[in-house]
Write a structure and sequence with these properties.
The complex is a heterodimer of chains A (about 375) and B (about 950). Chain A is mainly beta and about 375 residues long. Chain A is about 10% helix and about 40% strand. The longest helix of chain A is centred in the first third of the chain and has 15 residues. Chain B has about 950 residues and is mainly beta. Chain B is about 5% helix and about 50% strand. Chain B is elongated. At the A-B interface, helix 1, strand 1, helix 2 and strand 21 of A face helix 6, strand 51, strand 52, strand 56 and strand 57 of B.
Chain lengths: ~375, ~950
């Protein structure tokens, strides 16, 4: 071994031994904590409160907390009981119960272990209205992607508020119409069967929450109006903008504490694949254990003035789409060799009489998380 | 030439005197004896006529025929001529006895080195006393030296007329290489006065006129004792001989700082000799790394470049090399210290009681002293290890007047890495280099000018995450003067610039590069006065100009979407004026007191933002923007430091010490615990960020057992620091524009107890220490409502409750020794994600309380074996091999634990720097022999 080789070996040792390995810290004294996620507004009811329990970091799961007694109390002495319709989901039942602007509300929870939790009174503030929600086409550079990301950035303008200090929280719900790639013309299940309603499962609607929080305030604005506040970005890597897209924006006018909570939660959320670059810390909500104020209770019982708007966006023109498209297998002979468990196999036929098949999800939109019924609000 | 003349005169004088004593017999001249007289008759006749007696063995004496040619002939010469052909020797003594024996020369008197009285010429005080005397007593009787007591008269009656006390000044040097004997003890028995030589080997003692027994002793040398008659101010220079062979194998590895009797508390001192065998990473001997093995001193991780002393953050320690401050004291992220170990002579740490000459940091002062160039002759030394090569050359420009010392060290890894095809390694770098130059000019006996300069450069990469380049460049020019009879003064100009550049490429989308520079310009003046026996007064003035520039934060690489940010530089001036006294109040009690008044001004040019009073300092509460011009006074702070200490000797071997210090600090380092790699950015206190103040109380017991073989100490401390700067909960660690919106100032309480047992002598030596300490922070601002961790107390980022170190050296023979370290400490606190929950179907991570958990404990074992070259006293070059293994158990000590989110799951990673045992071999060489 020459001197040079020895040197190389030593130096490799220095550099290579610096290692990063996956490691999970020992947090064996973890005890599940209660999570409250409830909203009371001046909008039409019913109002829902979800109670759940935290799960282990390595096995994240939604764990509902059933069999609690949940009531909402206002400062006029009214008490409204909530009924558990699903495990962990408690809703108000009486139809004439509605949040009144200017009143204060709080929640009471009694758990199956007979622990009592409550929140301080929060005033339901008069909602500031949404002026408009609109979109703009935007392109973004993404590493590891060989093309620019294309999509629509949503923006929001509010009306001018009466007060100077306003805090807002937005929750978004998106609904989109999409088509599958092929119509079902035939079924093959060992024999051929013609399929009559070729487009019966071709078009679906999917409704889901947008998994982000949006918060803002008007404290250092000369004019208490938000202009061009950026909401979320919908790209063309999926089918959301394929045909028509609808966004339901709920704007909650909330107090400073509620804003602080959601803002902190939003602040600490880390995008996938990125490093945590903020000093992490524990965030607690506004509900606390009456007998043990030090017990951490997560989530928030939100009381806020609500204004909502729904907008519809058609497929943007001149914007490239990159969602994956199914490939049709046109070699019919291979169809006959498909195992029986795949039957019935959906087959499509084009105008030239050429047939082809692919996986079921390429034909049946309900297999992609959609529903066939057009939503009531759909235009 | 003048010296040789003196030599000659002295020699002649002594020889002459010697002969004079002998001449009584020699001068006997015999005459008037007839030819053919027999021996017996001759003897009888001579004995009759002269006061002479003959002694001889009649049986063995040869038959001789006496014939005296001349009329008269000197007796001794005559007898010698007569008997030497037969192999008989003739000896005489002063008493007139003549001895005639075969092959045996009777020494009739003890050698004439015991009782030399040297009369000092009162006018010529520069007469160096030591050298000449030594030169005349050449060669023989080495073993007698330690029992020699020399009689010395200092001064003259004339000069001392009317005074009651006098100052003895002098210089103690080592005979071997003429280097100054540093920290040698000069002790006067009768008054129990003790003086210790400084870095130049100089000492001063103030005593009443009279007679004393003075002894001078130093590590590795023979003692010298003097019977002193002090008549007036005068000089006594001492040359100490090296103790090369001792009867018992005694390797003295402790410094002679007497932990029991010395006045310093929380003071540690290490010299290069002591750490020769302690194993360190990759064969690079490292004084700073050894400091980590002392009680109360820790790091947060392998790759950090700072120390935590007694539960305080890294930025509360001030590091000096020869009075040049060093802001980053290590290479390659803390693997090696940034000082060439060849160039370092010793290293002191003040942890409890910080002397009044130092200030500006709340926790400790580390002071590294470099070697000074040999004033007599040229020499060099160096070494090669798998990582780096180092070389030191020193010598005189003009013998005894000026000297130089240059030391350089560099890795040669870069060119090797470039040869490797493996891309990860090919693109890595681990280059460092450092250099020290020290020039000394002795203008005259009272004035000395030192020029010192130091530089270090690093270019390194951790895994594939980030690349760093950083460097220190500093210089100082100092004038030392001794005035009056016993006072000294010093004036120095000091400069240092620290630069850090970082490229972070962990995530291409967020890749960035940034740089940081800190300039330090200082003027320092100090005066030490000794108005009387019992007082040593220190006064002085320091002023430092800081210029910190955070550079620009720029996106790095094509994929980075980072928004560039440009930061304004900052400037501030810190001035201090101090006065302190060490007072020997009673024979067993020494009191130490000082005041240091500091003023700090933050200067423009700067844009300052103001916020609504009583509201959290956040962007939403911004009220105004102020623009200050260049050198405008933006804000001024001041503070008074107290330094009080006391030492009480309960017995000769047991002392108790207490101290109280209040200190102020005007700059700090921004640090966090969740980053992968360190962020060593210094920031000055400014319009919003107030200065840090700290109070430290310490109490300790010190004892030496079994005749100073063992030293035991137990020291407890409590520190309260106010205005500690912490990142707020949720702070954006990359934000810097409105940096004050990410910071909160709180209180730090740290307390602990340190136990240390040290065995300094014997084949088996070393030390063991254990420290229990806590460091707790509370950040809760009642005025603005800002708080961390719900306003509750949380552990500081460097809180490590248990820490234990064991260092063992075993010297098998003079040439072979083994050494080992065992290091243990609790892991650093960290905030972990502990649970996951859902709001609005969105997944959210729940975290523990701040710093509620800890990363895994740190444990490491190192071993080394040192083989020295042969022990010939006369050889040109001496070499030694050192084999060492660092992290013998191969434990993956976590440096940091960090988190990312992948596909909806939170993933944790541990970064450890050394995951395997690191073996290394290094070879060291130096001019001279084993001991040089």
């Amino acid at each position: 071994m020459t001197v040079k080789n020895i040197l190389i070996v030593f130096l490799c040792l220095i550099l290579v031994t610096a290692c990063i390995d996956e490691y999970w810290p020992d947090i064996s004294d973890y005890e599940p904590l209660m999570v409250v996620d409830g909203t009371l507004t001046n909008g039409t009811g019913p109002y829902a409160v979800r109670l759940s329990v935290t799960s282990d970091v390595n096995h994240p799961k939604y764990e509902p907390l059933p069999a609690c007694t949940v009531t909402i109390e206002d400062d006029a002495g009214n008490i409204e009981s909530l009924t558990e319709t699903e495990p962990g989901l408690y809703v108000t039942v009486s139809e004439n119960f509605r949040g009144v602007v200017g009143r204060q509300y709080r929640i009471w929870i009694i758990t199956p272990e007979s622990k009592t939790y409550s929140s301080p009174f929060q005033r339901l503030l008069a909602p500031v209205g949404i002026d408009t929600v609109y979109t703009e086409v935007e392109y973004r550079e993404i590493p590891d992607l060989n093309h620019d990301l294309a999509g629509l950035q949503f923006y929001l303008d509010t009306y001018r508020a009466e007060n100077d200090s306003n805090y807002y929280l937005w929750k978004l719900e998106e609904t989109f119409l999409f088509h599958t790639d092929f119509f079902i013309d035939y079924l093959y299940m060992g024999y051929w069967e013609q399929f009559s309603n070729r487009d019966s499962v071709h078009t679906c609607w999917t409704t889901q929450n947008v998994y982000e929080f949006f918060t803002a305030h008007t404290l250092n604005l000369t004019n208490p109006t938000l202009i061009r506040y950026p909401l979320h970005y919908v790209d063309t890597e999926s089918r959301r903008l394929q045909v028509k897209y609808s966004l339901l924006v709920h704007q909650y006018t909330i107090d400073a504490d509620a804003h602080s909570f959601y803002d902190q939660v939003r602040n600490l959320m880390v995008d996938a694949g990125k490093l945590y670059t903020k000093q992490p810390y524990q965030i607690r909500g506004n509900v606390s254990n009456d007998d043990d104020p030090g017990e951490p209770v997560l989530g928030y019982f939100l009381v806020g003035g609500l204004d909502s708007i729904r907008i519809f966006v058609k497929r943007p023109l001149d914007v490239p789409f990159y969602y994956p498209v199914c490939e049709l297998i046109t070699d019919m002979r291979s169809l006959y060799f498909m195992p029986r468990s795949y039957w019935p196999i959906y087959v499509t036929e084009n105008a030239q009489g050429q047939r082809g098949y692919a996986s079921d999800a390429c034909f049946d939109c309900t297999l992609n998380g959609g529903v066939l019924e057009e939503p009531d609000f759909w235009e | 030439m003048r010296k040789h003349l003196k030599y000659g005169l002295m020699g002649g004088f002594l020889l002459g005197w010697h002969f004079f004593a002998m001449a009584q017999v020699d001068q006997v001249v015999v005459s008037g004896f007839p030819d053919g007289i027999s021996w017996n008759e001759f003897v009888a006749a001579v004995e009759n006529a002269y006061p002479v007696r003959f002694y001889y063995d009649p049986d063995s004496l040869p038959e001789v025929t006496l014939s005296i040619e001349q009329d008269s002939v000197p007796l001794t010469g005559f007898l010698t001529e007569l008997f030497s052909p037969y192999g008989f020797e003739v000896s005489t003594d002063r008493a007139g006895n003549v001895f005639i024996f075969k092959d045996r020369r009777i020494r009739s008197a003890l050698p004439e080195i015991c009782h030399i009285t040297l009369l000092q010429d009162a006018k010529d005080e520069t007469l160096p006393a030591g050298n000449e005397r030594e030169a005349t007593v050449s060669g023989f009787l080495d073993t007698y030296r330690e029992f020699i007591v020399e009689n010395v008269i200092i001064g003259s009656k004339l000069k001392g007329f009317g005074s009651t006390q006098a100052t003895i000044r002098g210089k103690v040097t080592n005979a071997m290489d003429h280097s100054p004997a540093v920290q040698a003890n000069v002790y006067v028995e009768e008054t129990r006065s003790l003086a210790v030589t400084n870095d130049s080997g100089q000492y001063q003692l103030v005593l009443p006129l009279g007679k004393y027994t003075l002894s001078v002793s130093s590590l590795g040398s023979f003692d010298k004792k003097y019977k002193l008659t002090l008549l007036s101010d005068g000089r006594l220079d001492v040359v100490l001989d090296h103790r090369v062979y001792a009867l018992e194998e005694v390797e003295i590895t402790s410094d002679r700082f007497n932990r029991v009797k010395g006045t310093q508390m929380g003071y540690e001192r290490l010299s290069t000799k002591e750490i020769k065998e302690i194993p360190v990473v990759l064969g690079e001997k490292d004084l700073i790394k050894v400091a980590l093995l002392l009680p109360g001193i820790q790091t947060v991780g392998e790759a950090t470049s700072g120390f935590n002393v007694r539960g305080s953050p890294v930025d509360q320690n001030l590091f000096y090399i020869n009075s040049v401050p060093v802001y980053n004291t290590s290479h390659v992220f803390g693997f090696f210290s940034s000082f060439n170990p060849e160039a370092v002579s010793d290293f002191s740490i003040y942890k409890s009681h910080i002397p009044v000459q130092y200030g500006g940091r709340l926790s400790s002062i580390f002071s590294v002293a470099s070697r000074q160039g040999d004033l007599k002759k040229f020499s060099f030394r160096g070494g090669i290890s798998p990582v780096a090569a180092r070389l030191l050359v020193e010598g005189p420009f003009k013998e005894d007047k000026s000297s130089y010392m240059l030391a350089v060290r560099s890795t040669y890894s870069d060119w090797v890495l470039n040869l490797i095809k493996e891309p990860d390694i090919h693109n890595s770098s681990a280059f460092f280099a450092d250099g020290i130059a020290n020039l000394t000019f002795r203008l005259d006996d009272r004035n000395r000018i030192d020029f010192f300069s130091y530089g270090s450069y690093d270019d390194a990469q951790i895994a594939t995450l980030s690349a760093y380049t950083y460097g220190n460049a500093g210089a100082s020019l100092a004038w030392n003067n001794q005035f009056g009879q016993r006072h000294s003064a010093a004036l120095s100009l000091i400069y240092n610039r620290y630069r850090l550049g970082e490229k972070n490429t962990e995530y291409a989308m967020e890749a960035y590069e940034r740089s940081f520079t800190l300039g330090h310009y200082e003027l320092r003046s100090s005066v030490t006065l000794r108005p009387s026996l019992n007082h040593t007064v220190d006064v002085g003035l320091n002023s430092i100009l800081y210029q910190a520039a955070r550079g620009d934060l720029l996106p790095y690489g094509d994929a980075s979407t980072l928004i560039p940010e440009s930061y304004e530089p900052e400037k501030g001036i810190e001035t201090a004026i101090y006065a302190g006294d060490e007072w020997k109040a009673a024979p067993k009690l020494i009191l130490n007191g000082g005041l240091r008044y500091t003023v700090y001004t933050y200067l423009g040019p700067k844009t300052v933002f103001t916020y609504k009073p009583g509201y959290p300092v956040e962007a939403i509460n911004l009220t105004d923007t102020l623009h200050y011009g260049n050198n405008a006074l933006i804000k001024t702070y001041n503070g008074l430091d107290y330094r009080l200490g006391a030492t009480y000797l309960l017995t000769g071997h047991l002392s108790v010490k207490a101290s109280y210090n209040r200190l102020h600090q005007y700059l700090f380092m921004l640090s966090n615990t969740i980053a992968i790699s360190p962020t060593d950015i210094w920031k000055l206190c400014d319009y919003h960020i107030k200065p840090l103040t700290g109070d430290q109380y310490t109490l300790g017991l010190y004892s030496s057992l079994l005749g100073e073989m063992f030293e035991v100490s137990l020291e407890g401390y409590y520190k309260n620091i106010r205005n500690l700067v912490e990142y707020k909960d949720g702070a954006d660690l990359t934000e810097a524009d409105l940096i004050e919106t990410e910071l909160i100032q709180g209180d730090l309480d740290s307390y602990g107890i340190e136990f240390m047992l040290k065995k300094s002598y014997g084949k088996l030596n070393g030390w063991v220490n254990y420290t229990w300490s806590r460091a707790l922070v509370q950040a809760n601002n009642p005025v603005t409502g800002e708080m961390n961790n719900f306003g509750e107390v949380y552990p500081a980022n460097f809180d490590k409750p248990h820490s234990a170190n064991l260092v063992l050296n075993y010297r098998i023979t003079k040439r072979l020794s083994f050494s080992s370290n065992i290091v243990y400490s609790t892991g650093r606190p960290v905030t972990y994600p502990t649970a996951v929950y859902y709001l609005n179907e969105t997944q959210i991570t729940h975290y523990s309380r701040r710093n509620e958990y800890r990363i895994p404990d740190y444990f490491r074992v190192d071993l080394s074996m040192n083989i020295e070259g042969n022990l010939k006293a006369r050889k040109l070059l001496h070499g030694s091999f050192s084999f060492s293994v660092y992290n013998l158990t191969g434990r993956n000590n976590a440096y940091s634990v960090y988190f990312t989110t992948e596909t909806g799951m939170i993933k944790a990673y541990r970064l450890s720097i050394f995951g395997v045992p690191i073996f290394s071999v290094s070879y060291n060489f130096k001019l001279g022999n084993y001991d040089s």
